[in-house]
Every structure is written in structure tokens, then in C-alpha cells.
């Protein structure tokens, strides 16, 4: 039995994708999907740059899940997967200026403009609960 590397990677990352899509976050897998979603997202949009690294599993994805249990949440929920959907991720990152590429990372946009950003180094050094609190505070500030 032989399996291609690409198939192996797709199978390996699927549970990581599912962790976000299961809580209602929509994947943007192509540049066209990003272009059709982010600029026209009226109100607030959360964009999670997912990744295979341990801090994504241990802090970022669980932190986002906890934050989305808050009373106030963004109007739109999106995710791109760094290292997997490379073009879509690069396109989404254009909306995160002036921040350099970072994964995992979490962006909050309001009417297409970046209003809050959590970089990888802010994920690595904090717990899922701290990330959730940070996001909930941003939701309170920008999602009303």
C-alpha cells in the first residue's frame, strides 16, 4: 500500500481543520474564497490562521473555541490553514498589515479593516483561557 505525501498531509491535518469547522468557522481554501469573503464581510470577521504546530493545538484553537462561547461574537467566522492552503493564507494575510506572517494567529476585522491581532508569540506564551479572554475583550470592544 502506497500513499502520496500530499494525501498523508491531508489526512493528518483534517482533524485540525475539523476542530474549527465543527464550531462554525468557515474554511477559506482558495484565494477566490478569501477575495469573496473578507472584503465584503460587513460588520466583524474573525480570521484564524490555523497551523499544525503544537501551540495551535494547545492554545490557539481551544482559545478561539472558548472565546466563541462569549455573549458577543463576530458576525463572520473564517479560517485559513498555513502551510496547507498556501495561496488562500497569503491572500488573507494581506488584510493583516502591518503584521508579518505568523501562524497560528488570529485577526479581527471590522468592515474589512484590521482592528485586533494576536500573533504567534502571543499564542505561544499564553494559555487557551488567556487567549479566550483577549478575544472576548476584543469582541466586547468591536463587535457591538
TrEMBL record:
Stored Pfam families: Disulph_isomer
InterPro entries named among the record's database cross-references: BrxB/BrxA (IPR009474)
Domain of life: Bacteria
Family classification: Belongs to the bacilliredoxin family.
PANTHER family, alphabetized: BACILLIREDOXIN BRXA (PTHR40052:SF2), UPF0403 PROTEIN YQIW-RELATED (PTHR40052)
Name listed for the protein in its UniProt record: BrxA/BrxB family bacilliredoxin
Species assigned in the record: Paenibacillus zeirhizosphaerae
